[in-house]
Specification:
two-stranded antiparallel sheet; two-stranded antiparallel ribbon; 78 residues; mainly beta; binds zinc ion; elongated
């Protein structure tokens, strides 16, 4: 996958990254669109190099790993 990350010069660059896999109770979204908003720009100089930018996005669910909450007993079949 590709991601917009903070480069050494504090500018954004598109970097190739490993494809993520969902953990229990998580999903993977193939992002189709992502914005960089004013909040991102306010904090960009305080984030670490390599940080993935953008928190306003939409996309398509491509993987799901379902899990049963651990505090609930398994459902019995009757
Ligand atoms: Zn925002």
């Amino acid at each position: 996958m590709r991601a917009a990350v903070i480069a050494e010069d504090r500018k954004l660059e598109v970097a190739q990254m490993d494809d993520p896999a969902p953990g229990p109770g998580e999903l993977v979204l193939a992002v189709k669109g992502c914005g960089i908003c004013g909040s991102d720009l306010k904090v960009v100089n305080h984030l670490p190099i390599g940080y993935t930018m953008g928190h306003e996005f939409s996309g398509e669910v491509v993987a799901v790993l379902l899990s049963r909450p651990s505090n609930r007993p398994p459902t019995s079949a009757k």
